[in-house]
Design a protein that fits this description.
The protein has 141 residues and is mostly helical. It has five helices and no strands. Pfam families: DMT_YdcZ.
C-alpha cells in the first residue's frame, strides 16, 4: 500500500512540477526553468539526505558510473514537458508521458534491461497498453 501511495504522490508532483515549470518558462525561458528546477530539487534532496542520515552515502562508489547520469535525464524531461504543456496542454502532455513511460518500462521488464528481472508479458498487458493509447486518442478529440 505504501508503494501505491508514493507512486500516486510522484505522479501528482510530476504534474504540478510540469505546470509550474511551464509558467516559469513563459517568464524566463525553458532552460532557465529547467535550471531552477534542477537546483531547487538538488537543494531539497540534499536537505532530506542531511536529516535522514541513513549511512548509505558511503556506498556511492559502488554505483556504476553509467547510472550516475540519471539526474541529467531530468533536464530533458523538464524541457520536453515544458514545451509540450505550452503546445498541447497539461492533460495531453501527461497522457503521452504516461504512455511513453509505460511503453518503455514494458520493454525494460520484458527484456530484462538494466539488470531488471525479466517479466513474462501476456495478452492482458498488451490490452492494457492498447487501452491507454485509445484513451489518449479519445482525449485528443
Amino acid at each position: 500500500m505504501i508503494g501505491i501511495l508514493f507512486a500516486f504522490l510522484g505522479g501528482a508532483f510530476i504534474t504540478l512540477q510540469g505546470v509550474a515549470n511551464a509558467r516559469i518558462s513563459q517568464d524566463i525561458g525553458t532552460w532557465q526553468a529547467a535550471t531552477i528546477t534542477q537546483f531547487t530539487g538538488f537543494a531539497a534532496a540534499l536537505l532530506i539526505l542531511l536529516f535522514v542520515r541513513d549511512g548509505k552515502w558511503q556506498k556511492f562508489k559502488q554505483v556504476k558510473p553509467i547510472y550516475l547520469t540519471g539526474g541529467a535525464f531530468a533536464a530533458i524531461v523538464i524541457s520536453s514537458n515544458v514545451t509540450s504543456i505550452q503546445r498541447i496542454g497539461v492533460t495531453l502532455t501527461i497522457a503521452f508521458v504516461l504512455i511513453a513511460q509505460l511503453g518503455l518500462t514494458f520493454l525494460v521488464d520484458r527484456n530484462g534491461w538494466f539488470g531488471v528481472a525479466k517479466t513474462k508479458m501476456g495478452l492482458p498487458q498488451y490490452i492494457g497498453i492498447a487501452m491507454m493509447i485509445t484513451g489518449v486518442a479519445i482525449l485528443r478529440f
